[in-house]
């Protein structure tokens, strides 16, 4: 924080290197046509306040090799002669400003290796900039998040040294250039967020060094080519979301063993989920991702270019950059996928986000889903799943976003600290019960058995069973005594003598 003026630099005549990155300092010049007393070689003023006018004093720094004036509040046009002022420039970052104009950059130094102009307000066609003639040595070209329009020109043979190419979030249309195949060293390609149409050209299969391919939010059609899996085997990120791809998910994608981010959401894909996704060695823990970096060393000075991706986790879309190597995600949502959830998915023990929502999946949730202990976000909503929720869900101790709403699930919600802390809306549209649900209609309540109405004894009615028992007992005893008196004469005489004697004794 703070303010500096040209007076602070008046005596620094031998200044060669200045790194003031992230200091949020304002440079407030007292003299509009200030000529610095020094000749810099490396100047990094990221997050300073230099604008809104373009800092014309930079053009006097003819020895500059590295220049970073990103996020410095510049909103004016860049002078056409700007590049001609730096014959030895190898690194230039002017991103995160509001610089206006068209990309008619003249006299690009042959020494330039990194050109980062993303997140500005450049407009117009790319043709003049890309096809002006002469082979470029640039390795990192970032023109994303501008207002560029028109087709992407077919002159990439003039850019054979590119390692990173970022054209995302512009207004570009037409088809993917076939001459991209002339860039064999390309490792990062993003044309995400444009209006690109047509099918994926087979010429892309020559880009065997690609680690990141981001083509989401376009108008691409056709099936996903099998050669993506067989030829681009180094891919770690494949993002094709929000297009018009149809057909099945090719089994050949399972050859992408290093993949840790696979986003095919919001297309028209059909068929079953491949059972061979357990071949993903990073997601299954067979390959550690300690060496996985989505930052690329480019240029002779090995400057690190950090890339990002726009992904949906926990129900919301965010851009991940510095923590991108930690993201492990499969998103197949909003397609027309059918069949069961493959049990093989449960072997992806390092997967942190799994989204299969808004498809036509049937069957039950795999019993061993609890093996996926790294899951943070898990969405199966709006399908046709049935059966009960597996008890093993209670083992997912890091689960903070879970949604199985609008299926045909039944039974009681498993018990765990994580699951019971979720919102009850995550379970709506099923026949489930138990916390966190408040309604209990989904559970069968077991009641104590009761007698049927006709079996109940009335308090005021006769007990015919008892009466019959008494009568039968009386008759049985009577005949046991009387029958011998009738049949045996000596018993009868003795009985009457005993009876006469008993009467006399009683005085009757």
Account of the 3D structure:
This protein is α/β, with parallel strands linked by helices and 508 residues long. Among the domains are: 113-326 and 334-343, Ribonuclease Inhibitor (Leucine-rich repeat, LRR (right-handed beta-alpha superhelix), Alpha-Beta Horseshoe); 362-448, Alpha-Beta Horseshoe (Leucine-rich repeat, LRR (right-handed beta-alpha superhelix)). Helices cover 11% and strands 23% of the residues. It contains five helices and 34 strands. It has helices spanning 127-130, 227-231, 417-420, 464-487, 489-506; strands spanning 3-4, 17-19, 26-27, 42-44, 66-68, 91-93, 100-102, 114-116, 121-124, 140-142, 147-151, 164-166, 171-174, 188-190, 195-198, 212-214, 219-223, 237-239, 244-248, 261-263, 268-271, 295-298, 303-306, 309-313, 316-320, 329-331, 336-339, 353-355, 360-361, 377-379, 386-388, 401-403, 408-412, 431-433. A 15-stranded parallel beta sheet has the order 2-4-5-6-8-10-12-14-16-18-20-26-28-30-32, with no helix packed on it. The longest helix has 24 residues, at 464-487. The radius of gyration is 42 Å and the shape is elongated. The N and C termini lie far apart (134 Å).
């Amino acid at each position: 924080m703070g303010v500096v003026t040209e007076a602070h630099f008046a005596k620094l005549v031998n200044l060669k290197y200045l790194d003031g990155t992230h200091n949020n300092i304002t440079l407030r010049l007292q003299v509009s046509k200030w000529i610095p007393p020094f000749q810099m070689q490396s100047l990094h003023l990221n997050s300073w306040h230099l604008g809104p006018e373009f800092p014309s004093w930079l053009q006097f720094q003819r020895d500059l090799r590295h220049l970073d004036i990103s996020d410095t509040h510049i909103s004016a046009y860049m002078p056409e002669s700007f590049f001609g002022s730096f014959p030895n420039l190898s690194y230039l970052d002017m991103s995160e400003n509001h610089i206006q104009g068209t990309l008619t950059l003249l006299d690009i130094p042959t020494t330039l290796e990194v050109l980062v102009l993303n997140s500005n307000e450049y407009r117009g066609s790319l043709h003049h900039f890309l096809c002006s003639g002469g082979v470029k040595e640039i390795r990192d070209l970032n023109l994303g998040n501008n207002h560029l329009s028109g087709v992407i020109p077919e002159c990439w043979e003039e850019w054979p040294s590119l390692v990173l190419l970022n054209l995302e979030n512009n207004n570009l249309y037409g088809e993917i250039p076939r001459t991209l195949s002339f860039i064999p060293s390309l490792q990062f390609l993003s044309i995400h967020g444009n209006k690109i149409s047509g099918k994926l050209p087979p010429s892309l299969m020559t880009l065997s060094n690609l680690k990141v391919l981001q083509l989401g939010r376009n108008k691409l059609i056709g099936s996903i080519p099998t050669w993506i899996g067989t030829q681009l085997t180094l891919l770690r990120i494949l993002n094709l979301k929000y297009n018009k791809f149809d057909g099945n998910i090719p089994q050949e994608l399972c050859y992408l063993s290093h993949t840790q981010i696979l986003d095919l959401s919001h297309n028209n894909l059909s068929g079953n989920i491949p059972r061979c996704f357990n071949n993903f060695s990073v997601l299954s823990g067979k390959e550690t991702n300690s060496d996985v970096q989505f930052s690329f060393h480019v240029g002779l000075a090995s400057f690190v270019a950090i890339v990002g991706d726009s992904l949906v986790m926990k129900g919301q879309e965010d851009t991940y950059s510095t923590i991108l190597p930690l993201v492990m995600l499969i998103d197949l949502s909003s397609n027309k996928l059918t069949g069961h959830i493959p049990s093989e998915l449960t072997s992806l023990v390092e997967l942190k986000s799994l989204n299969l929502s808004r498809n036509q999946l049937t069957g039950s949730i795999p019993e061993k889903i609890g093996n996926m202990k790294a899951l943070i976000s898990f969405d199966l909503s709006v399908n046709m799943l049935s059966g009960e929720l597996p008890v093993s869900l209670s083992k997912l101790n890091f689960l903070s976003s879970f949604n199985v709403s609008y299926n045909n699930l039944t039974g009681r919600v498993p018990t765990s600290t994580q699951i019971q802390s979720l919102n009850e809306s995550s379970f709506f549209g099923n026949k489930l019960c138990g916390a966190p649900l408040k309604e209990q209609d989904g559970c069968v309540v077991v009641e104590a058995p009761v007698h049927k109405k006709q079996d109940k004894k009335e308090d005021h009615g006769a007990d015919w069973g008892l009466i019959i028992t008494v009568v039968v007992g009386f008759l049985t005893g009577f005949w046991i005594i009387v029958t011998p008196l009738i049949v045996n004469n000596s018993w009868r005489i003795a009985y009457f003598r005993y009876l006469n004697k008993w009467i006399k004794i009683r005085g009757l």
